[in-house]
Q: What sequence folds into this?
């Protein structure tokens, strides 16, 4: 099984996703948020690029979520904090979500056979789901404005480690960037929250008062919920 | 001190090098070869992009070195193996060197105040030289055809570790990619040759019979020689 890890969305080449399973990672915070929302009973998350698209797609009963520059968009029901998407707030609802990087990553992956959303919180479950699809895998670290983000790389490393446990390390062909991320995760996994606090997005979120989100997003294998793309929306993969 | 690590030449933005020190890394094998040649008494290494440029620049007494697809160019004196550049072969000579990635990296860095060539063999010395220049630092992992190469990332991690020892870890502001490479090196440093054998270039060189080059290029802090750009050629930094 070939597994390639891509450092940021700008480097992702759409045509390379054909017949593959793509895992999109945006740990801080889009994919962590999708996982939390779907895990708490939300019906579907529709990722869109712009605020206008979000408003146009909204049907009665739908909720709007999203951020620009880490902050909630005026008039929206939620920002991009996984802790906002509680069961009482989201159960049975459809959420239109617009975030800067995670959404772009999912839209870029649409040519793949399967598109999953991965984060530290569901790394093991996401690895298992990806292996079950029996395709080569591309892991896209969403990054921030086409620049690599450490937390996404660490999550790619976690998923590679988990895939190795399932499929056997010797059966995997991993690109150089993936090998680097796997080593990086192995080195950092015992001090993951500290590492998240050191990286650019972690610092930015801390400064804006979102420390609790970092704690939530750093919980490795906290859930078995895996969002999967079904036409234009993310739904929960049956398990 | 700000230190940014860039994953491949395609991502390097020339304008960001102004007033900075740039370290170009192409462990397998261009910068390892330059270090070996200059360490063995060669007068200067002139990095050029094309075979034609190399031939045009050659003056009486100059030697030609370089590779295409890992192999020596027909009619050239040397390939791109550091082990070829022995004292008896290179002492007092100027070498015109054309390689695929390392040369492009150096040419892209030319707007910087100082341009150094780094490899695993001179990581510590290179770190010391860069700190002495008292500028912010950009470390360019040359990579291969605009794709990240693990061995260059490991070397970036080594240089960051060495800079940390000199300048104090707390005095460094490192971009996310640099933080990842530092962790990756910390994880891999005790099994460096094995790791080099696992990465794409390591496998390719092994297959072509260059295992000895991998052993040579994996020798961490084997030398104190640091090539520095002086107009259009690399010379030895005085120490």
A:
């Amino acid at each position: 099984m070939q597994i390639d890890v891509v450092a940021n969305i700008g480097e992702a080449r759409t045509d390379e996703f054909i017949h593959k399973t793509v895992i999109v990672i945006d740990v801080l915070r889009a994919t962590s948020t999708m996982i939390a929302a779907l895990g708490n009973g939300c019906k579907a998350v529709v990722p869109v690029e712009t605020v206008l698209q979000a408003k146009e797609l909204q049907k009665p009963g739908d909720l709007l979520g999203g951020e620009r520059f880490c902050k909630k968009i005026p008039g929206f029901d939620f920002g991009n904090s996984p802790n906002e998407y509680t069961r009482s707030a989201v159960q049975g609802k459809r959420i239109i979500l617009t975030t800067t990087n995670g959404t772009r990553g999912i839209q870029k992956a649409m040519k793949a056979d399967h598109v999953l959303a991965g984060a530290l919180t569901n790394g093991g479950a996401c690895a298992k789901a990806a292996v079950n699809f029996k395709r080569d895998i591309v892991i896209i670290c969403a990054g921030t404005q086409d620049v690599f983000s450490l937390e996404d790389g660490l999550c790619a490393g976690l998923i590679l480690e988990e895939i190795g446990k399932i499929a056997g390390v010797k059966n995997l062909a991993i690109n150089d960037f993936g090998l680097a991320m796997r080593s990086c995760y192995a080195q950092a996994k015992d001090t993951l929250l500290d590492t998240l606090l050191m990286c650019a997005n972690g610092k930015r979120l801390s400064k804006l008062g979102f420390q609790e989100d970092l704690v939530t997003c750093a919980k490795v294998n906290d859930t078995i919920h895996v969002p999967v793309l079904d036409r234009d929306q993310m739904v929960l993969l049956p398990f």
Chain A touches chain B at residues 7, 147-150, 153-154, 175-177, 179-181, 183-184, 186-188, 195, 198-200 (CB under 8 Å).
